[in-house]
Amino acid sequence: MAKKKSGKTSEQKEKSTAENAEIKENESSVSKEEYDKLKAELDQQKDQFLRMAAEYDNFRKRTEKEKLATFDNALATTVEAFLPVADNFALALASGVDSGDDFRKGIEMIEKQLDNAFEKLNVEKFGERGEAFDPLLHDAISRVDDDELGEDYIASVYQKGYRIGDKIIRHAMVQVSN
Fold first, then answer.
1. What is the pLDDT of residues 16-33, one digit of tens each?
2. pTM flag (> 0.85)
């Protein structure tokens, strides 16, 4: 039968044992001052690492917010370009001009399509007669006496206001009751 050879020769075993003994000797020879110095250096490196990790996390969050803000600003600019078209369709319907029923239905359909497109983009209309006046949302053009409404309510709307979430795209232009 063949004998199995061990992975290390006796010479390598002696060398390994000597190295282990030297390491143990070095460990015990470290003074209290050196230990404290090394511990302080380790604590400093750990603190530096934690700060860098926190900075990276803040950078990641800030970048995500900026990306969303850029998208919202681009969307707001695009929607703002379509608002005069929406206003003109609303004016055409409100004018009450006696035109053919088919023409009126066509304008109503186009206005409804615009409203649906705005809804899909999370664009919200505001500024209706009877709403409470809010100077953060509405631009008051004039004041009028209105027996039906109390003070500081919207009496009539000249232009609807539009917003996406908390971002105002256009303030509503309104007439306010006294």
1. 676 766 666 555 567 899
2. no
Contacts of 145 (CB under 8 A, 6+ apart): 177, 178
The single-letter code of the amino acid at 98 is: D
SS (H, E, C) the chain: CCCCCCCCCHHHHHHHHHHHHHHHHHHHCCCHHHHHHHHHHHHHHHHHHHHHHHHHHHHHHHHHHHHHHHHHHHHHHHHHHHHHHHHHHHHHHHHCCCCCHHHHHHHHHHHHHHHHHHHHCCEEEECCCCCECCCCCEEEEEEECCCCCCCCEEEEEEECEEEECCEEEECEEEEEEC
* Contact present, 167 and 79 (Cβ < 8 Å): no
- Which residue type sits at 92? A
* N residues, the chain: 178
Q: What are the pLDDT digits (tens) for 30-57?
A: 789 999 999 999 999 999 999 999 999 9
Query: At residue 166, what is the residue type?
Result: D
